[in-house]
Amino acid sequence: MDPMKKGYIRTYLMIPIYLIPLFIVATIVLYVNAGIKSGNVMLIVTICYSAVVTIAYLSEKKKITDEIIEFAAEYGTVQKQLLKNFQLPYAVLDENGRFMWMNESFSRSTQEDPSYKKSIANIFPELSREALEKIESEPVSIRVNHGDHVYDAVLQKMEFKPETEKNNSDFSIMLGGTLFSVMLFDETEYEKLKESFNDQKLISGLIYIDNYDEAIDSLDDDVKKSLIIAIIDRKIAKYFRQADAIIRKTDTDKYFIIFQQKYLKKLEENKFSVLEDVKNTKVGNDQEVTLSIGLGKDARTYSQSAEYARAAIDLALGRGGSQVVVKSRNHVSYYGVRGKEVEKTTRVKARVKAQALREMMETKDSVIVMGHQITDVDALGAAVGVYCAARELGKKCQIVLNTITTSLRPLVDKFTPAEGYPEDMFINSERAIELVNDNTLVMVVDTNRPSYTECPELLERSQSIVVFDHHRQGSERIENPLLSYIEPYASSACEMIAETLQYFSERMQLAPQEADCIYAGILIDTNNFMTKTGVRTFEAAAYLKRSGAEVTRVRKLLREDMATYKARAEVVRHAEVYRGSFAISVCQTDEVESPTIVGAQASNELLNIVGIKASFVITEYKGKIYVSARSIDEIDVQLIMERLGGGGHLNVAGAQLSGATVDEVKRKIKDILDAMIEEGEIRE
């Protein structure tokens, strides 16, 4: 009870006693002013009044107190009875989460006896002691499950401070501690309706045959050509029949599908086996037929679902094809990607992109080109190739290069004013930001992630952006470029640029040092033509050789110092072999200028060890953790790096992490490997 209210009751009871002094004062006044006779009368009245009031107070005090207590008890009983019969499940917990009391509705909902005194966490694991400790003065709602029911548990914290009414022990209270009230709102029907609503949403999808032309051209018999098309059509129709899907063929190599979202989980569980089924189609064709599928889910409208599907198929193709991409508003999921990218030998796309790049350069006054942070030889070579293209059109071109590492120094030193190159051919990020304007074309090479670029702010300041990259696309990408040429089949950005230069101008001439630089980029990214090397890679190298590239000269430019060689050897020497197939090591950064490059080289070296299927080298450099991942053909390291926040290719990938230590990253890599092996994504 409120202490102030107890004071009011006590004051009310004491009023007759408080009047006794007034009677005494009145008696004295009468003695003085009215005489002894009147004073005596008043004295008798005062004595009688005082006696009656005192006797009444002392005799009736306990009765009044008992009646108040009885009323409070009856009132509390009524409240308790109301809560007990309340249809809403209600319970009271102590500060440790143990039940103090529950009403009958709560007992029925939890199927526990009302005398149950154990922790509520035994019934609802979500309501642990840690969860209760986080509750402040405001009510908190937590979604909990029990049996087949889903509840919205509303918890209210109640704190009682010890209070004692010292003036009247009969009205004293002794309460203290913390209690929690719990109310349960049954959300089961709502959740069922919500699930039913989501299940009935329509998913739009696009299916593309990645290498239709190449697969058909490999057949010299028209009957076989018709047969393989019919088999692919039948396999696609049969697979999506389990989803009760509507399938329409929109082109010779394209399909449009619609099905309800409730079937998506079943397709995800079998990892979209149609990819492997179609890939195994053989009627005399030399090349495997691969599919790319883009699905849009959780859209508010049908048109939005179609937009998601379009974005998903673009992402699937940009990542090399032969995979399924499921895109929702805030999430992207990938399935497939177990095989090597199928090489495309046609150059039609390269020719179209070259002409588009030329047209864009012609409309601008200048070009600024940049690669990724800590620029490597491939990014530098590609940037030099762009410089040559801009020079052909008479446009000023500058390359953003914040750090010149030891591996880049011999190449950069070839582009000096003495050799006919401008002094400001290479600029830093600050200078690039000052120079960029509406008439500047910003070109990004060797990366398609804005956060990885040498100067991300340039992308925010320019509306004219071109992207040339050979890495698979991830969820993070440069938004709204005027031209995007993402070719995961290419071995390197330098290969793509070399192809582009051949179609850029018939009069294109490269100086020997320019051809050397582009050739060096191909050499590094292919690990001396041993990784991701296709027909077009050798054709690009042949073009550069004709343009003046000299293999011996390039080899001398790429030589390394003794400290770098020793550092790489130390990485290999201290490598840990995890689960018998994965080499994990750390690159020390004390004695080398370009530790990330050493880490990448060491990753390649580790693959030369018998039994190693994939290698991971972790490097801490300038406040970030860099991971270089490599494999030969059995493990898709891109999927592993994507779970770490990075990306790349089937057998060449990497990641950059902030706010983590080397040991934490090593542990994460092991956890990812364990999880993927358990899920069947990696076969030991």
UniProtKB/TrEMBL annotation:
Residues 367-522 form the DDH domain. The keyword Glycoprotein does not apply. InterPro entries: DDH_dom, DHH_sf, DHHA1_dom, GdpP/PdeA, Oligoribo/pAp-PDE_c-di-AMP_PDE. Its EC number is 3.1.4.-. It holds the Pfam family DHH. Mn(2+) 2 binds at D378, D446, H470, D525. Residues 600-673 form the DHHA1 domain. GO terms for molecular function: hydrolase activity; metal ion binding; nucleic acid binding. Has phosphodiesterase (PDE) activity against cyclic-di-AMP (c-di-AMP). This is Cyclic-di-AMP phosphodiesterase. It comes from Candidatus Weimeria bifida.
